[in-house]
Input
Amino acid sequence: MIKYLITLVLVGLPSCSPYVKFLEGDYLKTLKLKKTTPAQNYCEENPQLNIIHDSQFTQKEFSAILKKIKDSDRYSIAELGLLFYFYQMTIRPDATDEYSRIQVIIREKQKLFYRDFLSRDGPNLINTIETLKSEGLIKKSIRQLLKKKQAYFPKKFIVQKKLSDYLSKRNSNSEFNQKLKDTFFRVGKPLQKGESFQSTKVLKAVTGGRVIAAPPLFPIRNDKNSDAQIECSFDSKLYQNGIFLLNKEKSETNIFGLLRSNGDTVFFITKKDNSIGKGFTGKATKSNAAVCFHKDRDKTLDLIGFNSRDPGQILYHLFNYKINTSHRVADVTEYLIFPRHQFLTNPSRLIYESKKGTRDQLNYFLSFNFPVYHIENLSVVYALFKNKSRERTFIADSRYETFQSCKK
Output
């Protein structure tokens, strides 16, 4: 089964050994952060509720929904997150539904909650709900939340870019068209961005889920004299031993989150493999986003890596560059701007954001005994950073269009 998910390659071969040494830090001293003016990818002041998504329209529409729910400020961050999930099921059915792979990150007060719901055929959303209830993160009944959905969600929704692109890609699939012709097609053509549709989506089951245990997290080697702790969803020892996990799966991804001014946070990363089934009835993907959690006596730093064949490799590089030594939001932002690279196999090659780097950095990579190829943007990394002087702050990646509810 693993052979369909990843390519395992031992890069201890002579042609690739310089890269393994590079990952181990022998050559990191030769790479310096390029002097840049970091983009403003975060809110200077945290709004009462920061709504984060890649569509500005849907971000604003969900904000308007919450304003209609008069007691929404008394909902827990997880309860608001589930309402946001129900909303995403309508506007991004290609990536978000009951059966998507669901990764959830919640920060509430001092507690970190992380789960990865990945049953290929099971009701991952119902298991998510049951697990959140068992952890005391939601106290309202799901039927209460669904009543709010029924009362305050719009009767018609507006197609946004990601859904429009997906419909266009599936336009030639007659079975897909037939199943969804009354909702997402008009005069035989898929709806375009800006057109409206009426959702018929109903969550059929709200009970019967199972409590899912936390997945294993693996430590990243850090300075022995440091009190820092770094744990990730991937085993960094694989990279240290020249083993790379390169995903070949094609899937639809949706990532969305909420951040309260007191630092309470919820993020969902949902993924679906729609290569099987009709309509939007895909399955949970085998691959997932990479996540890492850093904490020391002064700060916490959470990283989410996605839109890459091996997002763990990207996060591993960032920790090798010492992103965890950042003391300010601007410092984290500068690390996220730094040019990225990724090792690929069959054949061995390096892809590199050469336009973002210096000539010396490019020459260094060219000194390896395998090809280097340019790429415009490589992966997306979201960060959540908190130090003693400010509440938790969300930091976006300039490689990916992201909208936040910053104060104007």
